[in-house]
Design goal:
zinc; alpha+beta; zinc-finger; 678 residues; Ubiquitin-like (UB roll); nine-stranded mixed β-sheet; five-stranded mixed β-sheet; transcription regulation; PHD-type domain-containing protein; transcription; single chain
């Protein structure tokens, strides 16, 4: 597959897929896509566990895009890794499927990873496939990483724009890549865990307040599943209340609780068409201004990158000489052994010290990195220096590093020791000159943080009086807890209504599923009293057949599709059509065009595997969830097991914050109540 031909760049990076994409199901579309555009890069490794040959393989697909006003096309490599779940028996469980509520789906034979790396990857296949997969699949710095199982259900794992270290494309552009890719290949349903940040703050809260939807909502992602028994209606109500919260009431409560707030609030109304009346209005303006500032900084960085290499020694010389003139020396500080030279470590340490000295308040790790990257391009070097310098005395200054329980990020601050000289702000520009001050006194990033701090004030504090906590606290907590969102690309779901099939040119498009025997289930629960059947749910699959196909050919195609998709159907064969064909007697020789058929077909058959390991992509669970919040299944939040009834409950629902250690010898409220009665 891929051959020796030179692959042509995919023309649909920032545009809609040509001709609406392929017409078949995802499992066949992705193979055609790789044949058309991909170049095979990995050696083949066959599975000996199956009659069908399966492999773990990798392709690269060149993507074309334009940057700026230039008409010149640039190329970016998309890596596609085909992971064979039969070979990788240790990773048959998909945690993302489990949290999304798809844990009843059977394990697919293949999973496809679509990756756009931050920089060109150097993969050494001779070191072993496990080493390659670790470098490819576990890298947190990819600009894009999404997975799609063979049945078209998948997960968007990571999108990194400019704030995440991208030098080529923004987060919005990477989302266009992913959306067009899923549309082209006919993906079914895709989830995303929204843990994105803007200026170091959780974006799902900020964007929802400003625009009544998450950032991913721009591309059609909606509520999927909430922890702590949060429903879609509860989430929407909380979003609406915060968006329309009167700004005057908000400011009064902020003063009541003695919180610092935005001083130049009226300045944000200047030049605006409407007055800021609600919390949503203010959040929208702040996000717009903060994003404009970030994009402006990105443009300045791009201009600075065009400076010739001969200017860099002047920058380094100016920085080091200024630091040494201020009697700030780090020569005595010993860095651990690493791959960077002493001079590079020293320069990076100088930059970090000056960056922190420019602020009198705590700075998040991301903010320090963003500021320092204007002078040090190696983010790995910056991460290493920040890690080593934390809570260390350097040049007579203590570099404090603490974990902020509200924002859940690491923060840094310079503490000047007694008798020492304060650090001057001496960071020069890339041309050796002092960086000019901003013309405007507005600082939208800082004001955004002030607003966020007011929103999360006493978020998880225990108080007997409701008046001691802000009125918006419960809604803010609900939005922060809700992270799972999904997009149904074609809204094709099982339906009992007798809808006709989709008719294409000389072909029909059907949705098919398989009804399993009542005994096909796995037990859940440790004791017999708690055991309950956890049945396998087969998602409907797309079939495209010629109109002239017979019922026998329909059965054969369903059997072939199930074998192609799921491990438990290795020897499966359809015996009967249970529903979808309206006829008293169904002959195998009858042609579909001569029958009254529905869009959704249900079949049954024989030959299902007895190996329960592959029955559920969420794992063969032997425990049950029964929390006081109403949750009956694993939602991804931290839980603890009751010592008496073996039920699992949320630690937070029982008063243990996530930052506190997990309780030992825990007894749930039901068992305590039963014990008192006894």
């Amino acid at each position: 597959m891929g051959g020796q031909k030179r692959p042509k760049p995919s023309p649909w990076l920032a545009n809609s897929p040509p001709n609406g994409g392929y017409v078949g199901p995802f499992r066949t579309n992705v193979r055609t896509f790789l044949e058309d555009y991909g170049t095979l890069k990995s050696p083949l490794r066959s599975s000996k566990h199956r009659q069908n040959s399966l492999y773990s393989r990798m392709w690269t697909v060149p993507l074309s895009f334009s940057q700026g006003s230039s008409s010149k096309k640039n190329l970016l490599d998309l890596y596609v890794f085909e992971q064979c779940m039969v070979l990788d028996t240790g990773v048959v469980v998909c945690d993302n499927c489990r949290v999304a509520g798809w844990n009843s789906h059977p394990v697919c034979n293949l999973t496809y990873h679509f990756i756009v790396p931050a920089r060109k990857l150097e993969l050494n296949w001779r070191a072993g496939e496990s080493v390659v997969k670790a470098a490819l699949l576990e890298n947190q710095a990819h600009l894009l990483h999404g997975t799609l199982h063979a049945n078209g259900f998948g997960h968007l794992l990571r999108v990194n724009g400019y704030e995440g270290g991208s030098l080529l494309l923004s987060g919005r552009q990477m989302m266009e890549v992913w959306t067009n890719l899923c549309t082209l290949l006919k993906a079914r349903v895709v989830t995303v865990e929204d843990v994105s940040h803007k200026c170091g703050l959780p974006y799902r809260l900020l964007h929802s307040i400003a625009h009544k939807t998450t950032w991913y909502g721009k591309w059609g992602y909606s509520f999927c599943r909430g922890p702590f028994n949060i429903t879609e209606s509860k989430w929407k109500s909380a979003v609406s209340r915060l968006h329309s919260f009167p700004l005057s009431t908000f400011k009064n409560e902020v003063r009541k609780h003695g919180l610092q707030f935005i001083v130049s609030l009226s300045s944000y109304e200047e030049g605006g068409k409407t007055k800021l009346k609600t919390l949503g209005d203010l959040m929208s303006v702040l996000l717009h201004r903060a994003n404009t500032t970030l994009m402006s900084a990105k443009g300045k960085q791009a201009t600075a990158n065009k400076i010739t290499h001969t200017a860099k020694p002047k920058f380094k010389q100016t920085l080091v000489s200024n630091m040494e003139a201020a009697n700030i020396k780090i020569d005595d500080f010993q860095f651990p052994a690493c791959r960077w030279s002493d001079n590079r470590l020293k320069l990076a340490a100088y930059v970090v010290l000056n960056t922190l000295s420019a602020s009198s308040s705590w700075m998040s790790r991301q903010d320090v990195r963003d500021a320092a990257r204007h002078y040090i391009g190696d983010t790995g070097l910056l991460d290493f220096v920040l890690k080593v310098m934390g809570n260390q005395v350097i040049g007579g200054n203590m570099i404090r590093r603490e974990f902020n329980s509200n924002t859940r990020v690491l923060e840094y601050k310079v503490e000047i020791l007694r008798g020492e000289k304060a650090l001057p702000i001496v960071l020069p520009g890339m041309n050796g000159q002092a960086t000019p001050k901003a013309k405007s006194d507005l600082n939208p990033q800082n004001d955004l943080k002030l607003l966020y701090n007011a929103l999360v004030h006493q978020l998880d504090a225990k108080s007997a009086r409701s008046s001691s906590v802000p009125s918006w606290q419960r809604d803010v907590r609900l939005l922060l807890d809700t992270k799972q969102f999904e997009k149904n690309y074609y809204c094709e779901v099982e339906s009992k209504s007798r809808e006709p099939p989709t008719v294409m040119k000389n072909a029909i498009r059907l949705l098919v599923s398989v009804k399993l025997e009542d005994g096909i289930a796995t037990p859940r629960g440790k004791s017999q009293g708690h055991s309950r059947a956890h049945k396998v749910a087969i998602p409907c699959e797309v079939l495209v057949l010629p109109e002239s196909s017979t019922v026998r050919q329909l059965k054969e195609e369903i059997s072939r599709a199930m074998k192609d998709l799921y491990t438990i159907f290795e020897n499966f064969k359809v015996t009967d059509i249970l529903s979808g064909i309206r006829a008293s007697q169904i002959s195998d020789q009858a042609r579909l065009r001569d029958l009254k058929i529905d869009r959704f077909i249900v079949a049954k058959g024989v030959g299902i595997s007895k190996n329960t390991l592959y029955y559920h992509v969420g794992g063969v669970e032997d425990w049950i969830v029964d929390c006081i919040c109403g949750t009956k299944d694993d939602d991804g939040e931290r839980m603890v097991e009751c010592e008496r009834c073996s039920r699992w409950v949320h630690t937070r629902c029982y008063g243990y914050p996530d930052s506190a250690p997990c309780p030992e010898n825990f007894i749930c409220s039901k068992c305590r109540k039963h014990h008192r009665r006894g």
